[in-house]
Design brief:
alpha/beta; Rossmann fold; five-stranded parallel β-sheet; P-loop_NTPase; nucleotide-binding; ATP-binding cassette domain-containing protein; ATP binding; AAA+_ATPase
Length: about 240
């Protein structure tokens, strides 16, 4: 069961680090996120922005540090005890993720793709589903499969899927990278508004910093140290 939504830190990280082969390292000195925070992680291509999202999404195990969700769930303890099922359930119930290219399952309809996170945690909220597909203007195409709709429509479906469980945290990895610039503002506007409606925190990456910051996000820039191949992030809002 998800913790109560209170005005508290929903996500707290301290001194997180992960070493990769070749000497490359990712460090998160501090990250404190509350509900309705909107964070943009910026930085040059190849600096590790997507890898940082992997750590934040609990998909990559840090070598050391502290991660707490809602001041009560010790994520590093779950990793130490190899509680992968617990981690998977936390990701499904408390997180929503939007990959760069929508990441929809090709043999499922848009409706089944959107509802899949609810099935994973045995949840049903038909009214919220109907609200999302109407709000994102895809209600008329939800019976179609991903290859039958446009790139922009697939991204909208990915936004709906990420929000279907009303997650505490939405992680978006370059959500407009695969769409034409004429669609980027539309998708960003819908993403920001629907995240606000679900009372979630948003953490996203983007190569288009100037465009994204128009929507009220707080920029946190990756600090790349080329000498020791380390990317460092400090996010204390």
């Amino acid at each position: 069961m998800a913790p109560e939504r209170q005005n508290q830190d929903v996500f707290y990280l301290e001194k997180i680090s992960r070493q990769f082969t070749g000497g490359i390292a990712i460090e998160i000195a501090m990250a404190r996120i509350r509900l309705r925070d909107k964070i943009l992680i910026s930085g040059p291509s190849g600096c590790g922005k997507s890898t940082i999202l992997g750590l934040l999404s609990l998909s990559l195990r840090p070598d050391r540090g502290k991660i707490f969700l809602c001041n009560q769930i010790d994520i590093l303890d779950k990793w130490r005890l190899n509680r992968r099922d617990d981690l998977a359930m936390i990701r499904a119930s408390l997180f929503g993720f939007i990959p760069q290219t929508a990441g929809l399952i090709p043999f499922l309809t848009l409706q089944d793709n959107i509802l899949l996170p609810q099935h994973l945690i045995a949840k049903q909220d038909q009214s919220w589903f109907e609200h999302l597909v109407k709000r994102l203007e895809i209600a008329s195409i939800i019976s179609k499969k991903p290859h039958e709709v446009s790139v922009g429509q697939r991204q909208r479906a990915a936004v709906a899927r990420a929000l279907i469980n009303r997650p505490f945290i939405v992680l978006a990895d370059e959500p407009t990278a695969s769409v034409h610039p004429s669609l980027a503002d539309e998708i960003l506007q819908l993403l920001i508004e629907t995240v606000a409606e679900s009372n979630s925190a948003l953490i996203m990456t983007s190569h288009d910093t100037q465009r994204t910051l128009k929507y009220g996000l707080t920029e946190v820039a990756c600090q790349l140290d080329p000498q020791n191949q380390t990317t460092r992030l400090v996010c204390n809002v």
